[in-house]
Amino acid sequence: MLTVTRSHTTALSRLGHALSDPTRAGVLLALRNGPAYPSELADDLGVSRQVMSNQLAYLRGCGLVEAVPEGRRSSYRLADVDLAPALGGLLPVVLSVEPDCCAGEECTCT
């Protein structure tokens, strides 16, 4: 069994904080399908490009996403190949705990 260290709890807390914002969670879930441009992510998630820029900067700072320069533009991708399957595995667990919790636009869980 893995010995849990302070760095483990810090890393997990960082991921939890990143997932605590619906826009950031949406970005991470969207990037499971592959790289995307900020403008596409903003449109898909219904936020302004400035909001998307701020959220991508936050996720970059956490080490969860990385920018891939492509000429004058950059696309974004998940920073670690293990993150996509981890998010994919986490989603059904969360939904099985309270499947109707977030059926609408706003989460109603208390």
TrEMBL record:
Gene3D superfamilies hit by this protein: Winged helix-like DNA-binding domain superfamily/Winged helix DNA-binding domain (1.10.10.10)
Transmembrane portions of the chain: none
Domain HTH arsR-type: 4-98
Pfam families in alphabetical order: HTH_5 (PF01022)
Top-level taxon: Bacteria
GO molecular function: cadmium ion sensor activity; DNA binding; DNA-binding transcription factor activity; lead ion binding
Biological process according to GO: response to cadmium ion; response to lead ion
NCBIfam families: HTH_metalloreg (NF033788)
Name of this chain's protein: Winged helix-turn-helix transcriptional regulator
Organism (species): Microbacterium lushaniae
Top-level taxonomy: Bacteria, Bacillati, Actinomycetota, Actinomycetes, Micrococcales
